[in-house]
């Protein structure tokens, strides 16, 4: 935390740093981003839309193991670098269904990862990222509870990558190049499952809301804590609090703690209470969570439209964790009121299956 401006202003009474409003931090107030805010981008049809629903080509060469009921699978005995276009499309479909898919002992290089990921769309770039093709992801060895005293962005909390953009990312991939033997795990939550876990009354309430996503808190924190200069000005967007996934056509909660500051249709206190509830909701969602222990050569590919994730802070040596992340642009989030939740679909399919079985059984008992 040595870069924080607050640490240059120690209170003579307590001996601790003072809390500075970002407007009084010259590093923030005087920064002029070199680029403009992004405009809406029309993206191509999702690659998962072209996949065989049974994923026969992919599962012929890989063994799938589900890590939890709601989210997360591992594909074993396969190298991403060897997958063809058809198998990559099927991988995208699997990711939309399972939220996040993991691999061990991959032989990908950064160049090959970038080349492979371009199959899924146009490469995205984080506001603080200088290289158009990828971003370096480090770990977290700091106490985010303490950092929150001096910087407004909850950098260690659940988020979907740059959800504040007009076109937030669809898919992200992280490949680990360096990693400590213990610590530095990442947790993902299923936003399909988070929506299912709401009461019917809360679902109806949230269905009609827009979540306020902002990059302002991250923008200030990047300048202060990281000492870097964001490339683009801060942006505020209002995205549906529940979005419809373009491939699965399922409802997914679209609220995260890293970038959502409220709800457009609600008054301030109402918004604050609802956001406080969602903080509890996300952090108590063990039944819709998966936690991944990284190793060098491990890869995760996830869908930002139906998951949120966070790095788990640890006490390992700073600088011992390094990953390469690539992301691609997704569609502008939308909500279809006629879409269904994952639970509703499962119940509907189960009911249809029982009806079919009972119908066949009844027919077989009719005498000739």
TrEMBL record:
Compositional bias (Polar residues): 355-368
Family of this protein: Belongs to the TfdA dioxygenase family.
UniProt keyword annotations, A-Z: Dioxygenase, Iron, Metal-binding, Oxidoreductase
PANTHER family in UniProt: ALPHA-KETOGLUTARATE-DEPENDENT SULFONATE DIOXYGENASE, ALPHA-KETOGLUTARATE-DEPENDENT SULFONATE DIOXYGENASE-RELATED
Renumbered residue ranges of the record's region Disordered: 335-368
Organism: Zasmidium cellare ATCC 36951
Alphabetical list of SUPFAM superfamilies matching this protein: Clavaminate synthase-like
Limits of the TauD/TfdA-like domain: 67-326
Basic and acidic residues biased stretches: 339-348
Superkingdom, taxonomy of origin: Eukaryota
GO molecular function: 2-oxoglutarate-dependent dioxygenase activity; metal ion binding
GO cellular component terms, semicolon-separated: cytoplasm
Protein name per Swiss-Prot or TrEMBL: TauD/TfdA-like domain-containing protein
Cofactor: Fe(2+)
């Amino acid at each position: 935390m040595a870069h924080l401006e607050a640490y240059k202003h120690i209170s003579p009474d307590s001996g601790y740093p003072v809390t500075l409003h970002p407007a009084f931090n010259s590093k923030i107030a005087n920064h002029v981003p070199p680029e403009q805010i992004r405009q809406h981008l029309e993206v191509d049809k999702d690659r998962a839309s072209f996949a065989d629903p049974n994923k026969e080509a992919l599962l012929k060469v890989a063994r799938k193991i589900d890590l939890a009921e709601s989210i997360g699978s591992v594909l074993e005995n396969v190298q991403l670098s060897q997958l063809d276009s058809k198998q990559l499309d099927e991988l995208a479909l699997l990711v939309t269904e399972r939220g996040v898919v993991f691999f061990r002992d991959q032989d990908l290089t950064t160049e090959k990862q970038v080349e492979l990921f371009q199959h899924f769309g146009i490469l995205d770039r984080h506001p603080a990222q200088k290289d158009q093709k990828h971003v370096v992801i480090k770990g977290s060895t700091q106490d985010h509870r303490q950092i929150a005293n001096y910087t407004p962005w909850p950098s260690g909390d659940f988020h979907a990558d740059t959800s504040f953009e007009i076109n937030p990312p669809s898919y992200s991939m992280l490949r680990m190049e360096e990693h400590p033997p213990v610590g530095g795990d990442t947790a993902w939550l299923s936003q399909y499952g988070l929506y299912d876990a709401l009461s019917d009354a809360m679902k109806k309430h949230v269905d009609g809301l827009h979540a306020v996503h902002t990059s302002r808190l991250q923008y200030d924190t990047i300048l202060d804590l990281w000492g870097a200069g964001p490339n683009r000005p801060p942006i505020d967007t209002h995205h549906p609090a529940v979005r419809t996934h373009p491939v699965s056509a399922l409802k997914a909660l679209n609220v995260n703690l890293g970038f959502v500051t409220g709800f457009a249709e609600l008054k301030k206190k109402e918004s604050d209470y609802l956001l406080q509830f969602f903080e509890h909701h996300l952090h108590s969602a063990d039944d819709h969570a998966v936690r991944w222990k990284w190793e060098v050569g491990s890869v995760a590919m996830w869908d930002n439209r139906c998951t949120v994730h966070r790095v788990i802070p640890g006490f390992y040596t700073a600088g011992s964790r390094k990953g390469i992340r690539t992301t691609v642009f997704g569609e502008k989030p939308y909500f279809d009121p006629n879409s269904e939740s994952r639970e509703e679909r499962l119940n509907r399919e189960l009911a249809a299956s029982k009806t079919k079985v009972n119908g066949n059984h009844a027919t077989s008992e009719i005498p000739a």
